[in-house]
């Protein structure tokens, strides 16, 4: 019984119904700092008609590591009609399949990744003649298309990724699907969960379903791909479709038999894969690029490192996989960009059973907890001196790579469900940045440090102008 539990303190609030919603949305940084000062490392807020618990650095690892008590996926399903829009997302075999067949042989994808990244960069960051410079106003949009080219190339195949409609689907699937999350859940003030209930009616009645068009495009191209022998098929990293059909255990997992392929189910899984990979990578890649454009004083040092690394490239400019380990300064820069991504709180988890934290406070089954990112990513003890300042090479001396998760770095979550795609994403961002630094000089049009755009406790990349100039060799 919830009544008998020793729950975290509920922060005082003045306005009934609204509770802390306004402060959380519009003054999150200061508000959570103040709450921590008054209530300590774990307390509850009343937001959008529900009580949620904010968990600070001392208890974060408990949330991330105890997957029998806390679930990120369950919290997402509660807020979002994923069973209608993202059917593949609840398929736990995707993470397993990716781990077993893709993430453990990333070197296999390194060449494809570089080739498609470099050609897409040339296509979308096209600055014309040799000595021209050009301003690009929405890097997030361009980088999403560049990343979509690469992810589509790897997961749906070289040939299908040549179609603009497939790139559009990869680039827009996520933003179209989460449209329902973008609408503030005002109806939840009337009754918690009402907003999601109404969203479900809208989708089920056929009034509006933003993913249908993408589903049709994915099915069409998966079919195209499946009809051609000797091509890399889908996200199953076997070289040939014939090879795929021989892999009985994968076929069984996917309900495959050579005469009866369930394309709709494959498109669902592809949708889930796009959802977890494209926007996350694009957002962080854009942030890294703008963070560097904002601090041109670091460009030369990074350029010199990339020049040395590039000596290992073959005649087509393709680096060996191992060269990624040599990009130490770039890796540190990227980790610093991740660390200061501006997320104040997030990674909401649902509580799966009554749980007692190590300090004795308890949360009931069905409750939600959210992690206080700032308490970790901006903490002096965890990050070293000047945790708020962007010090691009602070991780070089510490010898901590961008992919290392732990008590002081939770952008990729943690525990058993920590993002398995982080190495893939970081490799992609490193190859992209390596190429961009070698080819261009870039800086913000304003000449200032451009901050991310804040949306409540989260951020999206700035849409500021970035000036690109070709480097004179
Ligand atoms: C910079 C880019 C990325 C970020 C910031 C990111 C972040 C995250 C986070 C926070 C989680 C939840 C972890 C948790 O529950 O504790 C997650 C899960 C996941 N991510 Fe990523 N991700 C990124 C890129 C990718 C890519 C490129 C892929 C695939 C190619 C991917 C595949 C997954 C999968 C399959 C899961 C679910 C893991 C599970 O439930 O066991 N991610 N990611």
Automatic annotation (TrEMBL):
Cofactor: heme
Protein location: Membrane
Lineage: superkingdom: Eukaryota
InterPro entries: Cyt_P450, Cyt_P450_CS, Cyt_P450_E_grp-IV, Cyt_P450_sf
Main location: membrane
Any one of the GO CC terms: membrane
Coiled coil: none
Keywords in alphabetical order: Heme, Iron, Membrane, Metal-binding, Monooxygenase, Oxidoreductase, Transmembrane, Transmembrane helix
Mitochondrion listed as a keyword: no
Alphabetical list of PROSITE patterns matching this protein: CYTOCHROME_P450
Keyword GTP-binding among UniProt keywords: no
Name of the protein in question: Cytochrome P450
Organism annotation: Rhizophagus irregularis
Pfam families found in the cross-reference section: p450 (PF00067)
Molecular function, one GO term: heme binding
Family: Belongs to the cytochrome P450 family.
Record-listed heme binding positions: 419
SUPFAM superfamilies for the chain: Cytochrome P450
């Amino acid at each position: 019984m919830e009544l008998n539990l020793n729950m975290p303190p509920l922060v005082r609030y003045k306005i009934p119904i609204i509770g802390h919603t306004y402060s959380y949305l519009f003054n999150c940084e200061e508000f959570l700092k103040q709450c921590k000062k008054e209530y300590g490392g774990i307390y509850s807020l009343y937001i959008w008609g529900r009580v949620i618990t904010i968990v600070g650095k001392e208890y974060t690892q408990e949330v991330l590591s105890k997957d029998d008590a806390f679930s990120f996926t369950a919290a997402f399903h509660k807020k979002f009609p994923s069973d209608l829009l993202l059917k593949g997302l609840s398929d736990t075999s995707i993470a397993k399949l990716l781990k077993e067949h893709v993430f453990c042989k990333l070197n296999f994808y390194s060449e494809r990744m570089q080739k498609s990244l470099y050609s897409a960069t040339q296509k979308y960051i096209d600055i014309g003649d040799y000595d021209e410079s050009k301003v690009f106003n929405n890097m997030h949009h361009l980088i999403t298309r560049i990343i979509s080219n690469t992810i589509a190339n790897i997961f749906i195949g070289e040939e299908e990724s040549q179609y603009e409609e497939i790139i559009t689907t990869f680039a827009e699937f996520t933003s179209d699907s989460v449209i329902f999350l973008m609408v503030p859940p005002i109806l939840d003030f009337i009754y918690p969960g009402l907003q999601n209930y109404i969203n479900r009616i809208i989708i089920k009645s056929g009034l509006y379903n933003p993913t249908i068009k993408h589903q049709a495009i994915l099915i069409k191209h998966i079919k195209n791909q499946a009809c051609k022998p000797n091509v890399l098929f889908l996200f199953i990293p076997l070289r040939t479709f014939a090879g795929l059909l021989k892999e009985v255990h994968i076929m069984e997992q996917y309900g495959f038999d050579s005469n009866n392929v369930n394309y709709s189910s494959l498109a669902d899984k592809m949708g889930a894969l796009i959802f977890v990979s494209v926007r996350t990578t694009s957002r962080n890649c854009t942030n890294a690029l703008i963070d560097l454009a904002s601090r041109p004083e670091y460009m030369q040092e990074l350029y010199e490192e990339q020049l040395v690394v590039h000596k290992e490239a073959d005649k087509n400019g393709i680096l060996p996989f191992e060269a990624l380990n040599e990009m130490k300064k770039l890796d540190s820069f990227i980790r610093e960009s991740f660390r200061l991504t501006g997320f104040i709180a997030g990674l909401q988890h649902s509580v799966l059973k009554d749980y007692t934290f190590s300090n004795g406070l308890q949360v009931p089954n069905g409750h939600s907890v959210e992690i206080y990112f700032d308490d970790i990513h901006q903490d002096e003890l965890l990050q070293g001196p000047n945790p708020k300042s962007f010090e691009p090479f602070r991780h070089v001396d510490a010898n901590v790579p961008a992919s290392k998760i732990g008590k002081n770095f939770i952008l990729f979550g943690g525990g058993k469900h920590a993002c398995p795609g982080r190495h893939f994403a970081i490799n992609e961002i490193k190859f992209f940045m390596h190429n961009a630094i070698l080819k261009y000089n870039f800086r913000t049009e304003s000449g200032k440090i451009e901050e991310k755009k804040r949306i409540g406790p989260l951020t999206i990349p700035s849409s500021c102008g970035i000036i690109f100039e070709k480097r004179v060799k």
